[in-house]
Each structure stands twice: as structure tokens, then as C-alpha cells.
Fold:
Amino acid sequence: MIPDGRTPVFVVTGFLGSGKTTLVNRLIATPGFLDSLVVVNEFGEVPVDHHLLQAAEERAVALPNGCLCCHLRGDLEETLIGAAMRRRRGEIAGFDRVIVETSGLADPGPVAQTLYADRALERDFKLGPIVTVVDAADADLGLEVAKSQITAADVIVLSKIDRSPDFSGVENQVRALNPHARYIPARFGDVDPALLEKSGTDHVFSPVAHHDRGIRTFVLKFDAPPRKDLLERFLALLVELRGADLLRVKGIVGLDGGEHVAVQGVRHVFDRLRPIENRPSTGLVFITRNMAELDVQALWQAMSSLKGAS
Amino acid sequence: MFLNMKLLSHHGLNGFGGMGEGMSMQLARDGRRILWLAHESAPKNFTAVDVSDPRAPKVVVQTDLPHAQMRSNSLEVAGDLMAVAYQVTKFGLKPAGFELFDVSVPESPRSIAFFDASGPHSRGCHQLWFVDGKTVHMACADPEQKPRNPKDDQVYRIVDVSTPTKPRAVGRWHLPGTMEGDDAPPPERLPGKFDAGFRAHNTNVYPQRPDRCYLGYIDGGIMVIDISDPSRPKLVSRWANSPPYNGFNHTVLPLFERGLIVVSDESVKDNAGDWPKLVWILDGRDERHLVSIGTLPMPPVDAFKGRGGRYGAHNLHENPPVPGAWKSENIVLGTFFNGGVRAYDISDPYSPREIAYFVPEAPEGSKIGAVQINDVFVDDRGIVFTVDRHNGGLYALEMKV
Structure:
């Protein structure tokens, strides 16, 4: 077994006013999440002692419950590398996970891309679940950024269900955009943290095909276990041709040597194929924009055939 | 400070929490897991802790030394037998050697034999290895020999205890040139402030290679010793890093399936005064030609050297070939004094990565204001047990990697 000591980065996203901060505050108050590093865009939304804040300036601030809080100045890469360096030097106590609360207008894709694409960052961190909070009472799903947030999600928290007891309409609309995520209805951010922990990079979308409003979801199954190098080239070619439209690609693939690898990608950037043990193959689940399932299957078929003929 | 390690419990060992480098687990007949711990210095000899529930450790027995000018420091349990090292502070004092106990009833250790190694040029036994119930391999003075330099008194010795009541010395080895009467010239010593001696420290022997001892030899480097004839140990190879480094090679951990050998130095000066003290990875595929291929990446020395006490490498979890012990060829755990206990992924030995650590707060009553994590033992449940050298006692940790 190859041990993995990297710290997961949870990305909490959602449109303005959807309940992200409520969710983060509830999470970090639960015993299992006490040792979290919270990265926020603005202090004041999490319960930071402002006297501490002035003293610490840009440094991580210890919250009363044992968590740490960081203000995202500059870019996420700089913030996370700085946190890892301070942890390594013993300047901050430590943290089991990072929770990045994005701004309401942010597309979570670039956050995932940061974690996959930066090799320095990748030594210490790995992408955890992308959690998208959707206001069950007042969701505006017509905005592009809202769609991006939903399609990228591993977990969708339907918030404020106390205000909207019948949220099935919103849920159906959201499921039409992303049928693979785990759905959690919540009042006041009361989400079981264990469900989030289990929804990290190891969680694989359920293989269900769907399409709606240009956004398609489908599963690419492999007739025979593919060669690793061919799979890598296939993914690289897809990225080169249509990276912007690969909203999410995820799955566990059994390779021809018997090894199983996790595939994780958001738009232009894919994590390296990581060995994963004791998990069945799922094929590759795609969430795409204006990309036909048949085209992707044809590309793979063509590459497989040409490989066999050479 | 932590990364992927969580504190399950901390026990101050009844106010006697200054622990040495002897940690050994007994799977008792009644099903309990008893962790036996050697104390670093007087007045206590050893302490047994029931760690069946690592969240609620319980001291089951704690014993005293006969006097204050000695220490046990090292012990090992094999089945119901325990060997405890005795080292004295001045040459000629007694008891110097090791004592064997029947620990079948952990609450009542019963002395069954004593191996005497005292003499005018002896400080007795500093460290021992006892995993098969039949043979003690140890770093101990031999009264029949007189070292040219008094710092070189402890040699590698092999003692047959297959009849536990009658320990019998069967073999010994020392670096040629260190004893009176040797043909070889005396070895060139390290500069005065780093001159710790050419003598044995850890003496590991594993069932995968029962004909080899992996020997740390302080300022002399490390040795692979052929003990196929235990009465005539022979040098197979030697790897040394000092000079230019500052000596005190401590533990030699072979990883047989991977052809690797992990070597730890010991930091013995406060404030990293003998930096760098590191953990080295050797390519050991050809035991005659050991090649250093890397070191474990410790945190920056400037961030730790001023925290109090020592900072640098010391003991490793040694994959002891006994029931109840965790074994890994991919993860190496070591202790680093005020740097705590740290775990490294060496699946790529050319690029080892730190994957977990725990640095306790300064123990209550610490005179130096920092912990001094001294030794580590990991059991087959994956529970990491580690001890403080001065007064912190025992820490039980869960490693999450």
C-alpha cells in the first residue's frame, strides 16, 4: 500500500446567500471537524475573534473551537503553501483538512485546477469533496456560474428546507444538471460531517446518464481493461480538444495490468492517475457541456483500435 | 503540532515519565497488551502499562533500581521473558550487565537470572535486542577486554539464554584498534566536542537473516556483521558518515524485501549543537557495498533548534520480529526529540515524504520547556506509542495514513 499523507481540501461553493457560511460554521463546530483550516474570502463571516485577527494580520488565526482561519489574500496556492510551511515549521498547530469557502460568484473549477496543476501544492494537499450549497427556497439555476457550481459538485447540500418544505422541484432541476452527486437536504447547515468525509476524492459518481440544457452526463465503459498510457493520452486529447467543456470527469478504472486507478478531472486539468485499492471499476463518468457521448466513445474506440493495429 | 496523528491518551507514569529507549509489547496470556518501558534514569527501573485500550492506559507495575548511579534504558520482551539492560555511571560499579525476568504475571515480574558484565573498565550494558527468547544481542562492556579509550568500552556481545537461568556468553565483536592488544591502530577520533566513542549501540538481528547483525557503532558508523558462527562474528561491511558528520550512528533497520537499510543518528547536544543528525536511507542490495541514497526530510533546523533541548534524529520503530508489533517496509517512524515522532513514506526511497507527525506540548514541569520524544513502538493495530525522555511519560497516538 502506498500511504497518502496529503491533507484534503474541501471546497464549499454556492451562490450568494445560499448558506455556505452557515454550513461551514456548523461543520467546524462538530467534534470531527475541530482541526480544520478554514480559508475564507472575508473574515467576519466565521466566528473569528477580531482582536486576535489584528494581532495575527495575515497569519492563520486560531478560532475558539480549535480550528484555524485564513484570509484568502492573493491566490489560493499561495495561501495553502504558506499554511503548509507554517505547519511544517511548527508555527501553527496543525490541521486535518482545509475548508475553502469560495465567494458566491466563484466557479469551483479553478480551485480544483489549482490543486491538480500545482506540483508544489500537490505534495501536501489533495482535492476533497466539492460541496455546493443550493438554496432550496430561492435557487436561480439559470446563471452560468450556478450551473458551474452544481455540475462540479460531489455533494449538493439543499439548504433552507425549513423555508421550503417541498423542495422537490428545485431538487429535480438540480439533479437534471448533476445526477451523480450525493444530495443532502439541510436545515441551518445541519449536515452529517461523516457524509462529507466519505464524499472526497474516493467517492465516485453513480453511473447514471442524463442530459439537460446542453449539459450531458454519461458513462464511458471499457470493453477491456485499458492500457495506462493509452488512457492518459485519451484524456490528454480530450482536454486539448474540449477541456473547457469537460465540467467534471471522475471514475475508477481497472487497467490491463490489474491495477485500479482513480481518475479525477475538472475542465482542463486532471489529477495524475492514482492507484486505488479494493474498489470496483466504474468506468468514467462525464459531465460535459455540448459534447456528445457518442463522440467521446468514438474517440476511445478509435484510439483502442489503432493501438491494437500497430 | 500534528499531521495525520491524533492523541488517544497520555500517561505521566505516576510522576516518573523520563523514559529511555526500551519499548516492548507483551501479548499476555490473559489477552492483555502490556507495554514494557525502560526508564531513562534512576530512580525507576521499568514500568509496565496495560495498553489493551490505548485510550485508557493503566500502569500495572513500576519498579525501582537498586541505586541511583545506574540506569536501565533498554529492555526487550520475548514471550514471557524480559531482558533489562543495566548501565552504571562509573566504571567498576555494579550491577552492570542485564537481568532476566519472568513476566508471565505482568504485575509480578520475577527475576530469574543476572548476567554480570561489571569490571574496572565496564559501564555495563546500554542497549539490548532480545526477540527470539534464546539469544541476547547487546551493546555491553566485556570485562575481559580493556579499551584503549574508556569511551569505547561497550562492544557487540552475544549471550545464549536458551537456558534462561544460566546466561552464557558466546561471542563478541569490536572495531579493531579500540582494545588493548589489537593489531590495528586506534581509530582517528572525532573532534573533542563530538567524540562520543567507538562502541556499539543497537544490535538488531532478524529471522530473515539470522546470520547477520545490523550494528550501530556510534562514531564508527554502522556495520553488517556475519554471525553465522556466533562465537566468531566477522565484519561484512561498514558504512560511516563521520567525519564530516558528527558521529553517533544509532540504529540500523534493514528492510529485507526492498533491499534498503535505514540508519538513524542520535542528536546528543542541546539546541541542535551537533546538527545535522539525520535518518539515512542506504541501498543495501549488495551488503558489501552500502550506498547512501537519501535522508528523511526533517523540518527546518532553524525552526526547531531553539525550542528547548535536543532536536534531531534518534530512535526508529525497528519492525521487531515479535507478535504484536507492526511491520512496514514503506513507512518509517522515528523520534526527533523536540521534533516529536514522525512518519515517512519511503515507497520511493529516493524521494521520501513526511506523512505524519505529532509533537506534544512541553510536559508539565519540563525544565527545558519542550518535549524530548525519545523512542517509538508501533503495535499491530497501528497504534503509535512514544515516550518523552525527561518527564512526559507515554503518549498513545492514532496514525491516519
